[in-house]
Amino acid sequence: MSTAAPQAAGGRALAHPAREEIRLEGVLHALSDPMRLAIVREMAAAETALSCSAFALPVTKSTSTHHFRVLREAGVIEQVYRGTAKLNGLRRGDLDVLFPGLLDSVLDAAGRQADRLGE
Amino acid sequence: MSTAAPQAAGGRALAHPAREEIRLEGVLHALSDPMRLAIVREMAAAETALSCSAFALPVTKSTSTHHFRVLREAGVIEQVYRGTAKLNGLRRGDLDVLFPGLLDSVLDAAGRQADRLGE
């Protein structure tokens, strides 16, 4: 998905940092929460854009919305409106250009930890 | 450096998580601060234990102490007393066993970002 330009859909668009605005510290912070890390793992496994409701998160809708917003504002995911739903996709291309290997090593580490802790 | 056992030096020892207690989320959070990321980069470049005063940080001593404590409690660094000074070393061995490639990919990403932003 393209990222720098605003997405026009029903007149609404969500703010995304352009690739060159993405900061490593922000990406690491976005990934440092267990719920957000779980969201990103699921997104990476799906390899396609998913609506927020596709994620079975044990939190309220407003908390869920917050987590998706943190991921979007850090440049980890792209969110676009499709009707009343938001579709979410990883910004893998942008992240891989800026920080080669980082996302994969975090996903690998998260998988190892989940295996180790039996989660 | 060994990590799980407390370090006896003048009767004082600092608490460290054992390797199996280190959590990915905590490591990412510890690395998500620009100052702490700079400390870790300097430590990785030094490849030897450094005293806190070896780092020229533009912050007060109490803020500096806070950042080192966050890194220690997350399992990213080991701190041992040598007289009145603390020596700091990366827990590279533990991190590489738990999360292979993660620390190197973060260090590489931090270096690329610093080059890109001219820092």
Concise account of the structure shown:
Chains A, B: This is Helix-turn-helix transcriptional regulator. The structure is a homodimer. Chain A is mostly helical and about 120 residues long.
Tell me what the structure shows.
The structure is a homodimer of 119-residue chains. Chain A is mainly alpha-helical and 119 residues long. Chain A has a single domain, classed as Winged helix-like DNA-binding domain superfamily/Winged helix DNA-binding domain (Arc Repressor Mutant, subunit A). Chain A is built from 5 helices and 3 strands. In chain A, α1 packs antiparallel against α3. Chain A binds chain B through residues 20, 23-26, 28-29, 31-34, 37, 98-102, 104-106, 108-110, 112-113, 116, and chain B through 20, 23-26, 28-29, 31-34, 37, 98-102, 104-106, 108-110, 112-113, 116. Chains A, B: It comes from Streptomyces xanthii. Chains A, B: Keywords: DNA-binding, Transcription, Transcription regulation. Chains A, B: Pfam families: HTH_20. Chains A, B: Residues 16-110 form the HTH arsR-type domain.
